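Thread title: Can someone regenerate the structure for this chain?

I was given the following input by a collaborator and told the matching structure tokens would be attached. They weren't. Posting the sequence so someone can regenerate them.
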Amino acid sequence: MSETEDENTETPEKKSLFKRMKEGLTRSTRAMSDGVTGIFTKRKLDGETLQDLEDLLVTSDLGLDVAVEITEAVAKDRYDKEVSPEEVRDILAKEVARVLKPVEYPFRVEASKKPFITLVVGVNGAGKTTTIGKIASKTKAEGKSVMLAAGDTFRAAAIEQLAVWGERVGAPVVTTKVGGDSAGLAYEAVERAQKDGTDLLMIDTAGRLQNKTDLMAELEKVIRVIRKLDDTAPHATLLVLDATTGQNALNQVEVFTKIAGVTGLVMTKLDGTARGGILVAIARKYGLPVHMIGVGEGIDDLQDFSAEGFAKALTGA
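Best answer:
Regenerated them for you:
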């Protein structure tokens, strides 16, 4: 297939992914799109208009640096002219995509590392366990073997939920009793995955951020213990972020990167919030790969991140 054909051919799968993302981001889109329409309908581009746009972008969680850059891009060659809301939305989409493109990076299980040991971190309630289940399902569908480890040993619900996912996708789940030693469990899981020749081992972890010292000690111990069996592990550390937390997500990126050396992000619950812009602020500040976004409860609603698709869906372009 030629490059031109490839660009112009939208497969039903691609279309449905974009459609689902657009539907999932409806609240964010509406807030930004309606705001742009309100600001730019029959108004010339002047200092006041630009200040209103900058304020809208800041309240949409894009962050001050990105808001200033986008406002400058809109102002370029257009000052004192009438600008349509559609034109502004197009510029917004292009600028947001420009910020996000460098962090668009699909999650890949490297065949050279077997098992590919992946630590999954994040605060309780962010959707870690569900994300693990959905990634396991996708990986199994690609013909790879998966093992799960229920390392959030403090919550019976997390252990049970992971066991249900394991059964659902056909992946063995390593568990211990509630309150058990999560580092010991991680060690056992790595040992088993090595013995079985498993392609992907995903280890769930606790997320009690209110006591950072305990959490740090626990995660450091988990990492130390698995390195006794594989000194290159973990091969990936995924931070699962809940989009509804808005600005607090920035703090979580900082804390977990310090504690566990985060290598990539998954953002969930983008369907339940008007705060999708926070991903733009995180991308600009930390530059961490964004692997996937969750735009719904369904197993197919965890999608590979697309900078352009996300930018268009977010801005309503």
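Confidence is low (pLDDT under 50) at residues 1-12.
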